[in-house]
Amino acid sequence: MKKLLFSLLPLAGLAACHPEDRSGEQPFAPEVNTLGAVVNGPQATLNGCVTRSLNSELRKVGFVYGNDTLRLSIEETGNPQALYSLTTDSLGAGTYFYAAFATNGVGTTYADTLTFTIQPD
User: Fold this and answer.
1) pLDDT score at 1
2) What is the DSSP letter of 10?
3) Has residue 24 got a pLDDT over 90?
4) pLDDT attached to residue 28
5) Could you tell me the pTM of the whole model?
6) Could you tell me where the beta strands, DSSP code E, fall in 10-113?
7) Cα 19–22–23 angle (5° rounding)?
């Protein structure tokens, strides 16, 4: 039995050094873009787009936004879809930053940060 085990050991090592290429099946974190915001009075509609979520279903999509006085707010949009948007509550005048994010089974990705401005009344 020992002889059989030791004779199979080199074959197992050889197989481990030359595994089958399965990179096409590997899941990856999502790729996401922050799209433009549409400002309407004291509200803004933020837009995002998931461009890829290879081999892993989307779990959450949303935005982080804020300014120098508003604490960072993280909002999920509900049903995860490739194109998504979120309308903010009434905001005070000022410049705000925002970034889209998406989460799948591998991880969370944040897109580039953009800004929008709410004009005073």
Assistant:
1) 53
2) H
3) no
4) 87
5) 0.74
6) 31-40, 43-52, 58-66, 73-76, 83-87, 94-104, 108-110
7) 120
